[in-house]
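Below is our example:
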Amino acid sequence: MDFFALFFKTILFRPYVFLFLAAFLFSAIQLIGWPRTWRFWLISWATAFVCEYSSTRNGIPFGWYHYNGSTVGQELYFSNIPFMDSISFSFLLYAAYCLTLCFLLPRAESTGTPSWLLSLRLDREAQTSWHALLLTALFFAFIDMVIDPVALRGDRWFLGKIYYYPDPGTHFGVPLANYAGWAVVGLISLAIYFPLERRLPPLASSPSISITPKLLLGVGLYYGVLAFNLALTFWIGEDLLGMTGLLMYVPVTALLLIRLLSHLSTAPRNTPAQ
């Protein structure tokens, strides 16, 4: 009963994390179904937990950092790791994966989507390619460059001061090794998940079925987390950090829009009768 009481307190203590987690479960089930969703979640959470457990003891792969235990009794911990911290890796990795698929999936033959939006279809080769592996890991580490600096300043908002780096890094106090560690978590998680994906029965799809709307649910989660963290950054008065985060995503967002709207420039135009 103590476990369930603490779990309920965790929900009340970190409601925004559970909101993002619920968005992940809903969007992932819509796109890839429950059998793949729970595998993706379990693999990414377990990988993140092991990496955090390791890094707080030997500095690999994130570099040295420590949780100070200030929220023990207020939220659920596994060993010295807050449960909500390691679980966040799962929905962020899925969101980064959806963003990646927007760039890599082939075009569907018919729309099934609004006329202004590019129709994409599932393709197992593209979904499990090394391009998908590397680009997802990049987007995964990229968003932490917005999240981690503001989380490090958690004493100035409702997160609280829950961890610290013994040797503050060059990126607003965050060591660059931390971002490399995020990429490692992404690479390991997907390197385990992709072979399972290839063995599972193919998802029902055809060249004429567009999955763009379902895919954009995951992309919306990615940008929702980004907007949440940028809003907090400006709220606590870290304007330089906030503007840096905004400018980082200008090229990414521009390329995403070019990809999703590129078919408009090639769509046939009606010419007036002579």
The mean pLDDT is 91. DSSP finds eight helices and four strands in the chain. The radius of gyration is 20 Å. Helices lie at 2-13, 15-58, 83-104, 124-127, 130-152, 176-199, 212-235, 239-261.
